[in-house]
Design a protein that fits this description.
heterodimer, A: 50s Ribosomal Protein L5, Chain: A, 5-stranded antiparallel sheet, two-stranded parallel ribbon, 7 strands, extended, B: 2 domains, 6 helices
Chain lengths: 321, 163
């Protein structure tokens, strides 16, 4: 399906060139004079000179013969050919933009962050350090708290107000065990929603109960960071989640004890994304998958992360745990 | 009796599945000739193992996902590259200044809160205790709408009720 147009077929629009560089009769004359004792390169008939650097220097080509492509991998500090920075247009990772400020990002810095700062403010008096009592408390803080899932409330200042760091969209497709078309459709959908090329993951274990075999491509994920994460979250809150029928909210107990909140979306909910809804019939029936969406925050515990998301407008079902 | 004709074995790309299909087709026909569907089946790789053709929409998805020009590499001339570099640097400068300004604003607010609380604590301990007490934790409001550039079509909803 994917094809490359061979360079020999590419023609400059204003010239009337044939595939052969020289007319046929001159080639036939050349062939009679070609020597078989000279090395192979010397037998090539001489061409007229064309510039490879710039079309303004004359020549029939409007495009240079050699097109540079930056290296894909970083081969270490001793390798000479280094990939350019991702902000450079010659980089493979270059993404053009941004083209507009984000509503949710501006709203966060204008309103949400100051509100959270005020809500979480605790007044500390000027500290007086007593070597007998306070030193032991400092040593206790250095060790991790027990039990492992215990989440201590953080001392909040203007330096560590929780903010959105990224969003991960993940889709595991069981039918991809038998037919890879399901995974291709899932990858296309994740790419349409997030604007990011999805990465494929393979299964690790053989579990007969779930008909799972190791080494099969089974899931796709995409990570959205920075401004795009604010855009995606705003789209969820404003457009997609209100359209879901009978959706009560994200579970109040969700969270991985580090401030990352996850919730799932069914196949019908995924169809509510404008990017999917507009060309829904371009996907075969039953190939639109469900997703898991993980929202990463810089809050160190779950409750602060959920308070941040609540301030941004994400509804929760049940008390925070 | 089934006979494999010599032409099938000499083909360059030997597909086991297509060969099996040819066997089954030949068995159905009841004669020993290799059917033409064998060569055609090999060339057309789109058929799945059961013989059902893949959906055109899946073909299109695969075409666009695996196209070598995705994403298309950009090739800028010298002056175009210089313009991009200038705009990029200016934008990064603007973004850094904006981020600093936002963080300084939060710091100023925090310092003002701290100074006010300290002033109150030294002035009146009773009032200070009442101000600092966190008996009722107030969560942020979920219904607070993210501001938009333009107002809504329906305006203010007077009939809205929570729950």
């Amino acid at each position: 399906m994917a094809h490359r147009t061979p360079l020999s077929i590419l023609r400059a629009p204003n010239t009337h060139q044939h595939h052969l560089l020289l007319p046929l009769d001159t080639l036939q004359q050349q062939s009679r004079r070609l020597s078989t004792t000279k090395p192979a390169l010397a037998r090539v008939p001489p061409r007229e000179k064309t510039s490879a650097s710039s079309p303004s220097k004359g020549g029939s080509r409007t495009r240079a013969a050699y097109q540079y492509r930056s290296p894909r991998y970083y081969r270490g500090r001793l390798a000479p050919n280094v990939p350019p920075p991702s902000a450079s247009p010659s980089s493979r990772l270059f993404v053009p933009g941004p083209f507009a400020a984000e509503r949710l990002e501006d709203h966060y810095w204008n309103t949400v962050a100051p509100d959270l700062q005020v809500l979480s403010y605790v007044h500390k008096q000027n500290p007086t350090f007593d070597i007998e009592k306070d030193y032991r408390q400092l040593t206790a803080l250095r060790l991790p708290p027990k039990p492992t899932r215990q989440q201590l409330p953080a001392l909040r200042t203007f330096r560590n107000i929780p903010r959105l760091t990224g969003i991960t969209v993940h889709s595991m497709v069981r039918e991809a065990m038998k037919d890879s078309a399901y995974l291709h459709a899932a990858g296309m959908i994740v790419q349409s929603i997030t604007g990011v090329r999805a990465s494929v993951h393979k299964s690790k274990d053989n579990i007969a109960m779930w008909e799972l075999r190791a080494g099969k491509s089974i899931s796709v994920t995409a990570q959205v960071k920075g401004r795009s994460a604010y855009r995606f979250l705003a789209q969820l809150i404003d457009v997609v989640l209100p359209r879901i029928k009978d959706w009560k909210g994200v579970a109040g107990g969700s969270g991985d004890s580090s401030g990352n909140i996850t919730f799932g979306m069914s196949s019908e909910a995924v169809s509510m994304f404008p990017e999917i809804e507009v060309n829904y019939d371009m996907y075969p029936p039953k190939m639109v998958p469900g997703l898991h969406i993980t929202i990463h925050t810089s809050a160190g515990n779950d409750v602060d992360a959920k308070i941040l998301l609540k301030a941004m407008g994400l509804p929760f079902d049940g008390n925070f745990r | 009796m089934l006979r494999i004709s010599s032409t099938t074995l000499s083909l360059p790309q030997f597909s086991v599945i297509a060969h099996l299909q040819a066997f089954r087709a030949a068995a159905a026909l009841g004669n020993g000739t290799a059917p033409a569907s064998l060569t055609r089946g090999m060339a057309r790789k789109s058929k799945s193992k059961k013989g059902a053709p893949t959906d055109v929409r899946i073909k299109l998805i695969r075409y666009s996902l695996y196209h070598p020009k995705t994403p298309r590499p950009l090739r800028f001339g010298t002056m175009r590259m210089l313009r991009h570099w200038t705009i990029h640097r200016a934008w990064r400068l603007y973004q850094t200044a904006q981020q600093k300004e936002r963080e300084y604003e939060l710091e100023r607010q925090y310092n003002k809160m701290r100074d006010a609380c300290e002033e109150l604590r030294l002035t009146s301990p009773g009032l200070y205790e009442r101000a600092v007490a966190k008996s009722i934790f107030r969560y942020p409001i979920v219904e607070f709408r993210i501001p938009t550039d333009t107002p809504s079509k329906i305006g203010w909803n007077h009939e809205w009720k929570r729950g």
